[in-house]
Structures are given as C-alpha cells and as structure tokens.
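Attaching the record inline, Q. Sequence:
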Amino acid sequence: MSEQVTVATMTEQAAARAALIKLLLFAGSLAFLPITSYFVSWKYIWTGNSIYAAVTAICVANVVLVAYIVVSVLEDKQSLKQVEEKRLSESKKDR
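Structure, as predicted:
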C-alpha cells in the first residue's frame, strides 16, 4: 500500500511542477513579448508611430493570454480523459 501512496505522491508532485513551469513560462512571455514587440514594431515596422506600436503590443499580450487559456483547457480535457479511463479500468477490475 505504501508503494501506491509513494507513486501517487510523486505523480502529484510532477503534475504540480509541470503546471508551475507552464505558468512561469507564460508569465515570462506575458512580461517580455509585449514590451519587445512594442519597441521592435515602433522602430522597424511603424517607424516612430507609438499608437500603432502600442496596438501591436496589446495584440501580442492577448495572443499570449489566449494561448495560455487554450493550453489550460486542453490539459484539463486530457486529465479528465485520464480520470475517466482510470475509472473504467477500476470498474472492470471489480467485475
């Protein structure tokens, strides 16, 4: 029984670690990409027009947020699928 608890604990820790890494990656992207896109688009694309550069940065920030939401939803669907498969396998064992 203790082996099962150890495996379950390690699995939970790995899942928590993966979620934390994903959160930090998206937080870093949200901090770095809009600022970078603002200055790059201000200097090279819009040649000094700060309003268009700001709109570009806003669009980049929204893309990062939408990407985080999509990844979270897909991850949630995957975890629900795994729980359902586990439930089905346990119900087959009971028979």
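The CA atoms of residues 34 and 57 lie 4 Å apart. The radius of gyration is 21 Å.

More tomorrow.
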